[in-house]
């Protein structure tokens, strides 16, 4: 549903289209952090959670062509308004009705709505074809900013009022997307070819690529990440830790979106797509290396014995081998190193450690004894000289 620039065509910035899709996406993003951890509150099994989180991907794979055909007839403005309404309805259903059938219907509605949001936003972006890549990148950056804030804020709301209520609240917030959609200018509709008759939508290879990358990165990987965090020892609630990590992913998109759009305008979208796919696969390979014999290091203070036992038990339960490395340095040498760090203030410096702070840590530090070293396959590292 491309809408090329034409003489007399209405030009618009990407602030409003970006706001519509960003606000509408709030709950879809939050679902990945909330649903796996609180599935019992929604009356769902873990298997159904997997179905629901992947369903919208399957729907979009086959709905894009049909939605594009509708968009050609009604125009990007009406398509955006309808999609905003669909996102409001699906968001509210998540929180109001405890039924697998209703949750499935809501995810199907969201899948269709998101396909419409994506295509309509793209139509507004390419209304200025010469800067289309930059405009898409700017839109993605705006989406990332809203998602990062809503993830952390949504997780906090979950901890205050519960997982179901957060979706009712978000449904009300999603009304902002409808208001923004109504304010959008109307772009000219493309000529519609008649007489072709009905044809089943066949996904384009670009849509298949988007599905595979989204299913693997936003689906399988994120769901696995949530379960790993759930079973990890952390100083914050699992939902908040998950939300923070997902927000970090969106923050990366904020910084790279405009740059990627500019690169796309300059070198072509095909090269960018190949580079993105290569980086994604490379990232998965690096993560997998930790599961096939390549060791990983958890570099923490671990001052107390009970904390070290908890970390070791978590790793053992995950089928990982554990080895404790004890850097055995006397207090005088440790303080000398701290003073040097305070003085040099290198790239990793964050805080000047005073002598009272150092002395306090010494009072809670529990060096591993012989029994703990044996139990954790410990290695004692001595300073040189």
Structural description of this entry:
The chain has 2 domains: 275 residues, Up-down Bundle (Growth Hormone, Chain: A); 77 residues, no CATH class. 69% of the residues lie in helices and 2% in strands. The N terminus is likely disordered. A two-stranded parallel sheet has the order 1-2. By secondary structure, the protein is mostly helical. Helix 2 crosses helix 6, helix 3 runs antiparallel to helix 9 and helix 4 runs antiparallel to helix 5.
Strand content: under 5%
Rg: 26 Å
Low-confidence stretches: 1-10, 194-200
Number of strands: 2
Task: Supply the key terms.
2 domains, Growth Hormone, Chain: A, 2 strands, elongated, 385 residues, 15 helices, two-stranded parallel sheet, mainly alpha, single chain, disordered N terminus
Q: What topology emerges from the helices and strands here?
A:
Blueprint lengths: L14 H10 L1 H9 L11 H29 L1 H21 L3 H26 L6 H30 L1 H11 L1 H9 L21 H26 L7 H30 L1 H21 L15 H13 L7 E3 L3 H14 L10 H10 L5 H6 L3 E3 L4
Helix pairs in contact: 1-4, 1-5, 1-6, 1-8, 2-6, 2-10, 3-4, 3-5, 3-9, 4-5, 4-7, 4-8, 6-7, 6-10, 9-10, 10-11
Give a brief outline of the structure:
The protein is mainly α and 385 residues long. The chain has helices spanning 15-24, 26-34, 46-74, 76-96, 100-125, 132-161, 163-173, 175-183, 205-230, 238-267, 269-289, 305-317, 331-344, 355-364, 370-375; strands at 325-327, 379-381.
